[in-house]
Amino acid sequence: MSAPSHSSLDISRRAVMVSGAATAAMSALPADVQAAPAPSKPATMPVSFKVNGKDVSLTLDTRTTLLDSLREHLKLTGTKKGCDHGQCGACTVIVNGERINSCLSLAVQHQGDEVTTIEGLGTPDDLHPMQAAFVTYDGYQCGYCTPGQICSAVSVLKEIEAGIPSHVQEDITAAPAFTNMEMRERMSGNICRCGAYSNIAEAMAAVAGAKA
Ligand code: FES
Ligand code: FES
Predict the structure, then answer these.
(1) Which of 2, 58, 115, 135 has the fewest Cβ atoms surrounding its Cβ within 10 A?
(2) Residue 33 domain-assigned (yes or no)
(3) Does the reported pTM lie above 0.85?
(4) Among the atoms of ligand 2, which is closest to the Cα of residue 194?
(5) Which residues are near ligand 1 (CB < 6 Å)?
(6) pLDDT tens digits, residue range 131-168?
(7) Which of 89, 121, 153 is at the close of a domain?
(8) Residues 6+ apart with CB under 8 A from 58
(9) Total domain count for the chain?
(10) How far apart are CA 212 and CA 210, in angstroms?
């Protein structure tokens, strides 16, 4: 029988050292961690709702936000993810006629709801009046916040029309007016890092004036 070569001795020495180190590391772990079961699969749930007038049915991890269901599952990437924490408004969509931050809402909460995203408001050939006004009044620069701004702006005008009071109203029993202050206050949850605020307010005023 021939003697083992140097290289095979090296490999077996390395293998012994690695296995020894792994055993030492395992024995250093607390007993409950060593015995931890393999992670279970995430819970999923079917959910059906309407998006931009179309029925959709998905089976989702129950932790999926409405925002991620729109962007990752339905490929509607017009709705943007900014902070993912309810602080920037980039993810604003309209659900059953009211604006919400879709990053703060689980998709499975929306069974049977009607969701409108920027893609459902208008098309390049047939813009919603608010989309057209944003173009006319330069209500954007980079455009990242713009889908959320437009969905919010459309809802804000409806909120004022419906008489929903705001923080800047002197008399909250009176009907709110389409003033610059009202619109700025109601849009304060939509952040624009490019600072297009005054142009956005002008676009909104133009649409509000056309409505009045
Ligand atoms: S991404 Fe939802 S509020 Fe910022
Ligand atoms: S247009 Fe750039 S963040 Fe608003």
Answers:
(1) 2
(2) no
(3) no
(4) 2
(5) 81-84, 86-91, 101, 103
(6) 999 999 999 999 999 999 999 999 999 999 999 999 99
(7) 121
(8) 46, 47, 48, 69, 73, 74, 107
(9) 2
(10) 6
